[in-house]
Amino acid sequence: MFFSKIHTRIRFFFLLILCLLIVIIVRVFYIQVFQYDKLSTLAESLWSRQLPIGADRGEIYDRNGKVLATNLTTTSLVLIPSQITKKEEVARKISEILNSDYDAMLEHVSKKTSIERVHPEGRQLSYEVASQINDLGYDGVYLVKESKRYYPYGNVLSHVLGYVGIDNQGLSGLELTYDKYLTGEDGSIKYFSDGKGNRLELAEVYEEPQDGINIKLTIDLDLQLAVERELDNVMTKYTPEHALILAMQPQTGEILAMASRPNFDPNHYQEYDTETINRNLPIWMTYEPGSTFKISTLAASLEEKTINLFEDTFFDSGSISVDGATIHCWKSGGHGAQTYLNVVENSCNPGFVSLGQKLGAQTLMKYINDFGFGSKTGIDLNGESNGILFQPNKMGPVELATTSFGQGISVTPIQQVTAVSAVVNGGSLYTPYLVKEMLEPETNSVILTQEPVLKRKVISEESSKLARYALESVVANGSGRNAYIENYRVGGKTGTAQKVENGHYMVGNYILSFMGFMPADDPQIVVYVAIDHPIGAIQYGGQTAAPVAKEILQAAISIFDWQETTEGMEKEYNWMDTKYKRIPNVLGLTSDEAKKQLKGFTIEYSGEGQNVIYQSPAANQFVKEGGSVKLMLG
């Protein structure tokens, strides 16, 4: 009996040991097979160290592949405190080279951490400084590659491109909007050390950084440079509070150029105040638009057929009374009897009040909203404003009257350009955009293309055609004559908006503007110029802003190689204008007959013979009075 109990205990103990062995074997199997990768990674993390290698940020190009934002390779200081034996000496030498505080550097080299990045004084070091540190030859002191953003054209397109911080993160503009695409993935050099941080003689592991995606913009750099040049001229000549120019392709919504003053150099953004670097005026600034807004009222009237441009008339006495308020025309005494085409040409406020009254508040505001006013356009930039409009049910007769000619409401430049593009392109409202393509960083092959985004159809092609005709007539015969370009078809509208402060209109303080487009029969560019309170300027948009727009349009003619035409409207000259005349066709005439036809021009002959076989300029083109005409005889 006694031995039986002993045997039972032995068997029980043996069974218990066997069970424990089975559990241990299963556990070891589980660890070795199922948790090997995890535990191996954890173990490696205890004795491996990584020196970071910064990835390059994606480059930014204009529509033709010209580099607008790129990267410079710099170096940064990284410390392994456990490997530094002479901490005071290292701290003193490095602080002397960096011209930084010794105590702060001693704190860096004494940190109880595996890797210490010296920030900010040890970031983006120059070649000379990095060489001095490298020559010290101290253990635990490393120099690693770091990328620094660089804008080769300085302050050109600064608000659109934006800027990046010291850690290569986008902080404004396209750099912020597309930061997740432009930012690459950092690499590293992995080495191994013991528990005390001493480096082991094991092979290093190099993990290559992955550069960010490159992006190509809709911007044309040559046109952008022309815009920047004209803005510089405006600032020098008039010293305004602000100035801006915006150019769009009306058939797609592509932004061709965008700039404003004041601007900044994103390479040195730290030297500017936050208002200057963060306020992109073409999308942020809101103000009463003035007469350029009349284009929307005109388009709504044409679409609703409330007027006939050529037959219906309006008598302008110089003012119009609306619910006890008197609204004046800019011309003292008024324009008298005029067609509504003349109302547009003359930018007659009372005439546009009558257009608004014919439409009514509900209909006018419907079109204003349909053209995109009162809401963000959706352009791919941060910081866009909404603007402010009246609610139709809260509009009285006076609010309806002032809205019809662009007073009492608030809009942004990008809203105006987008709306006018819809008016002149056949009636289609597009979302404006800046990024045209995304490119793979190594091969620059296209991985994504941005197609135009049509929001809605606002007016018909017929109404758009009539609006284009009226606006071309404004430039040929009306207030926009200073934007007229001989042998090209230009349309446009002037604007002179009185500024508001604390609910009251300011005396002698205006925003002068001009909205222009060309070719008038098939618009390929819409240009908006706005100059805020120019000093010493004639306070009319047609006198101050229109000539600036003309310079931009002439630059566009050269850049895009647009050909001359003989189909445009002839300009109605006044006594101050330089006069141009059409060249008659003298091919086949004798030299004497041609001389009579070309009276008033200087003739240059070449060749021998009696008859004209070639003439330059060609027939029907405009040439300045007294200008040269070359004839070849044969």
Key words describing this protein structure:
4 domains, 7-stranded mixed sheet, Penicillin-binding protein 2a (Domain 2), single chain, 20 helices, Beta-lactamase
Tell me about this structure.
The protein has four domains: 33 residues; 160 residues, Penicillin-binding protein 2a (Domain 2) (Alpha-Beta Complex), CATH 3.90.1310.10; 327 residues, DD-peptidase/beta-lactamase superfamily (Beta-lactamase, 3-Layer(aba) Sandwich), CATH 3.40.710; 54 residues, Trypsin Inhibitor V, Chain A, CATH 3.30.10.20. The termini are far apart. Strands 2, 3, 4, 5, 8, 16 and 17 form a seven-stranded mixed beta sheet that branches. It has 20 helices and 26 strands. By secondary structure, it is α+β, with helices and mostly antiparallel strands. Helix 3 runs antiparallel to helix 5. The mean pLDDT is 86.
